Amino acid sequence: MDVRVTTDAAAFERTVFPFLQRDPVLNNLLMSSVHQRANGTAIAETGPSYFVSVHDGDVVGAAMRTPGRGVYLGALRAEFADPVADAYADVLLELDGVEGDRPAVERFGRRWCELRGVRATESTVSRLHKLGTLSPLTADAGHARLMRADEVDVVGAWGLDGFPRELRLGYREWADRHLEQQTMWIWEADGDPVSMVGYRPPTFGVCRIGPVYTPPEHRRHGYAGALTSHVSAKVLAQGNQLCLFTDLANPTSNKIYHQAGYRPVADFVHVEFAA
């Protein structure tokens, strides 16, 4: 077995995508993140990304670590977790955490704690869903529309409020990118924006819904569910599959997405490291 590390996203894409595209839904987060960095559409970052591929003749596993985040193992097989941890230890002195399939994360975590003398604490568990048959949802009032240019600050602020870890590298740039790509939709009620739903452009025919956010004062009116089903219908009409992640600690959102037609694919655990 051979484990290789590179900071070249384009080279990594050429190496691992023939393996990952066998299941473009299960591997969507890894593939879309790599693809953005390979084609230069990712928001500017403060340091290099480190990509790891595992080879046993052919590619049998892949992982990534992008600036400001932990290692993402995705569906990596547990037997590869130790050598992948060793590979990251060769290029990183510190690491915030690791996320992926539980057996791999647990083995990676034990190895990283041995190497760095830190402690591992499970923080969240997310569930990947794939859309089966779409069931449109309705809201108390309002309608869906694309984000407007004068809403960059609003969308950026909502993103920073709901997803601070993901957007700490530049929330306004993130909102500008959604505006440019026309991948952010707004639910408007009584003339005001009350909810937003974005999605990632397709990677091998799969789009990932997210972020989904409704400010606290506008919740419990069905806005997010109605907007998610509306955006899902638009993406389906373009010939793409759809997936999304939910936090298992939020039963309300999991129920809503199930009602819209999304079904579980896999669970991924996130572990944080601390001294």
Q: Which helices and strands appear, and what pairs or packs with what?
A:
Layout (H helix, E strand, L loop, with lengths): L1 E5 L2 H12 L7 H11 L11 E7 L1 E8 L5 E4 L6 H9 L7 E4 L1 H15 L2 E13 L11 E4 L5 H11 L1 H4 L3 H11 L2 E6 L2 E8 L6 E8 L9 H15 L3 E7 L3 H10 L1 E13 L1
Parallel strand pairs: 4-5, 10-11
Antiparallel strand pairs: 1-2, 2-3, 3-4, 5-12, 6-11, 6-12, 7-8, 8-9, 9-10
Percent range for β-strand residues: 25-35%
Q: What is the first-to-last residue Cα distance?
A: 32 Å
Main beta sheet: 12 strands, mixed
CATH level-1 class of the largest domain = Alpha Beta
- Global structural class: alpha+beta
What share of residues is helical?
A: 25-40%
**In the CATH scheme, what's the topology name of the largest domain?**
Aminopeptidase
Q: Average pLDDT across residues?
A: 94
CATH superfamily of the largest domain: Gcn5-related N-acetyltransferase (GNAT)
The gross shape turns out to be globular
How are strands sequenced across the largest beta sheet? 1-2-3-4-5-12-6-11-10-9-8-7
Radius of gyration: 19 Å
Number of domains: 2
| Number of alpha- plus pi-helical segments | 9
Number of strands: 12
Corresponding CATH architecture of the largest domain:
3-Layer(aba) Sandwich
